[in-house]
Amino acid sequence: MPQFRIARISLLLAAIGLSAVPALTPAFAQDKAAPAAEAPKDSVRPEIYKLVEPAQIKALMDAKNYTEVQSRLDQAEALPNKTPYEIFVLNRMRISLGSATNNTQMTTTALESVINSGKLQPAEQKDFIAALGNMYYNAKEYQKAITWFNRYQTETGDNKMRPYIIRAYYFSNDFATAKTELLKDLEAAQKSNTAPKLEELQLLANTGAKTKDQATYLLAVENLVRYYPSDDYWTDLLSRTQGKATYSTRFALDIYRLQKAAVSKMSAEDYAEMADLALLAGQPIEAKQALDAGFTAGVLGKGPNADKHKKLRAQADRQAADDMKNIGSGEASARKSKNGTGLINLGYAYVTMGQYDKGIALIQEGIAKGGLPNAEDAKLRLGYSYALAGKKDEAIKTLQTVQGADGRGDLARYWTIWVNRPVGGAAAPAQAAQ
């Protein structure tokens, strides 16, 4: 994930006018014989004005004579009994000088003083606080950045700095707080039926990865798949789901079925493994389709395993041809079986052939017949058969009834995400979280 960097401080300062030399009102010189009079409010004494007269300072700054500007500010600073406004003016000029000379310490110290002076207008105060928080963030002083961004939110009621606050927690290795805040934002987005920001989901995934928190990582990637689907996100989600401690390997083929539907291209290993599993499951037509897709994609039939791929394809072609020729005769024997397993397998074979209505009807018949070792597995396959058939409402209704912590419930939820995928949508950049 790229670091979320705010604009360079020199640009920020220029944009909100912080690099400009402030206009000054000099106090009137007093007659030595006359009684001392209080200097007008928000003015500077002549001896200070002579040193930092705006036109002169601007000319020096334009000429990049920063040494002279620094000298004048130092001389003014050495004068005793400076008023709060005089201190304010000198710090405004230090902001400009510090920005021009890339002196972060000078700029941030001066900014803090100006903000706390009480002499800024509300609009200025807001911009100065934002600029200071930005400076600390870009300088990787994240705790200070958090302090000033929080102050910005408190004083303005504006939450636009919230993303930077969360990132500051993350970059300061306070992953627990970053996770808490990111989950709050995710929940709020889902309640308001709006898509969470891509960068926030990536950051949540990174937080899970950094802390080896698999549940948080999977939650983030699941939502990346939901809102910003890409081949990388789908592959990552399905691969890591198989790594869960409760996952059952009997769903390996089901995982590949979803992956094949969800991504534009799988790896050579995945196509070959899917074909092997489909052959073992008595689904040679599905095995043939997986291998054909791999060869069409240009990932099978080359490299050190080219011969193995070709032999596997020949085997699948033979068995698929037999299946397609004899599939109709299998219904009678499946109905004579003591349980519905044969009908379900036969039904799914029809689904792979694109005969969805016939296949779904046979799967439903097999479920009704009963005697299944895993009835919920059959409901899962019925649900994604509806999905592959384009029957969205029926798919969602069926998949929502599927339960199980062994991978089945996850797959039902992921198929529902696939069914609800953006149509021709703007997918996210194919960048897996690290």
TrEMBL record:
Q: Which SUPFAM superfamilies match?
A: TPR-like
User: Entry's InterPro entries?
Assistant: TPR-like_helical_dom_sf
Q: Which organism is it from?
A: Pseudoduganella plicata
Keywords noted in UniProt: Signal
Q: Secretion signal: which residues?
A: 1-29
Protein name as annotated:
Tetratricopeptide repeat protein
What Pfam families does the annotation carry? TPR_16
